[in-house]
Write a structure and sequence with these properties.
About 10% of the residues have low confidence. The termini are far apart. The radius of gyration is 21 Å and the shape is elongated. The protein folds into two domains: about 180 residues, Zn peptidases (Aminopeptidase), CATH 3.40.630; about 70 residues, OB fold (Dihydrolipoamide Acetyltransferase, E2P) (Beta Barrel). About 15% of the residues lie in helices and about 30% in strands. It is an alpha/beta fold.
């Protein structure tokens, strides 16, 4: 008897093989959503969230979540060495929605946010369906990013369990709102969405070297002049600099505590205004 789900056809790859990513959902149909990330060592947050989403969608396919079903296939492609089948990102994404999950910076802890690069109105509307706290619009950067929904969270190589939980819920909400996944919402909406332009972002930089201790976390709303952290002298422990917020707005990212040098970015702020 033939399988009813394309997710059942991934068996049979030999040891060490790297089979193509296999969609989860109705067989023989074009994937509606492609979700990718990078190598697990760098994008551990994306790898973990994709693994959780894979387990959830396979449970839906088995009927473990009563009243829920996949109407269209979802293609999950963790980076090299990650996830079931050690899938690599497909060279050409066939899906209607293309989502990339990354943690690009090893020092700045980023609030979960959607980034768009030269988007059209449809992409702007799609970005809001995750219900994440910030959508940031950037100028076009290469054709491969145009039309893609890029989700940034956390810090490269460091797992942030709270951010991963928030993103997992956001991805499930996205699948429900696009009607790729049928069923009632699993959780109450936590949507507090704000739209920003990358050109308005303000950076807070260290005026000198020392040990930085942050006072506020990403996602906090701050006002002008509010202390965001201190830089301490590494020799005598005295406060050498207090870093104030340079604008009123949403803290998009905050530097991890530790040694910093003059000119290092310690926080980024999305000012209130056009989108916020």
């Amino acid at each position: 008897m033939p399988p009813t789900s394309s997710s059942q056809s991934s068996a049979g790859a030999g040891p060490g093989a790297e089979p193509a990513a296999v969609p989860i959902g109705p067989a023989g149909r074009r994937p509606a959503v492609l979700i990718t990330t990078g190598a697990p060592r760098d994008d551990v947050n994306g790898t973990f969230v994709i693994a959780r989403l894979s387990a959830f969608l396979h449970a839906v396919e088995r009927g473990a979540h009563w009243g829920r079903s996949l109407r269209e296939p979802v293609l999950l492609a963790p980076g090299p060495g990650g996830g079931a089948g050690r899938n690599r990102e497909p060279a050409a994404a066939p899906a209607r929605y293309q989502v990339r999950v990354v943690s690009p910076d090893p020092k700045l802890e980023a609030l979960p946010q959607v980034r768009l690069y030269g988007p059209d109105d449809d992409a702007r509307a799609d970005a809001c369906l995750f219900g994440l706290p910030a959508v940031v619009e950037y100028p076009p950067i290469g054709p491969e990013r145009r039309g893609r929904l890029e989700i940034v969270l956390g810090r490269r190589g460091v797992l942030n369990k709270a951010y991963c939980e928030r993103l997992f819920r956001a991805l499930v909400a996205f699948l429900l709102r696009t009607e790729v996944l049928a069923g009632d919402p699993l959780w109450e909406d936590e949507e507090d969405l704000h739209y920003f332009a990358a050109e308005d972002e303000r950076a807070v930089q260290a005026g000198g070297g020392g040990i930085f201790i942050g006072l506020r976390a990403p996602g906090a709303w701050v006002h002008v002049g509010e202390p965001l952290g201190h830089v301490y002298d590494s020799a005598d422990g005295e406060i050498r600099e207090t870093l104030p917020a340079v604008a009123a707005g949403l803290l998009g990212a905050v530097r991890r505590s530790g040694f910093v040098r003059r000119g290092d970015t310690l926080a980024t702020i999305h000012p209130r205004g056009r989108g916020g």
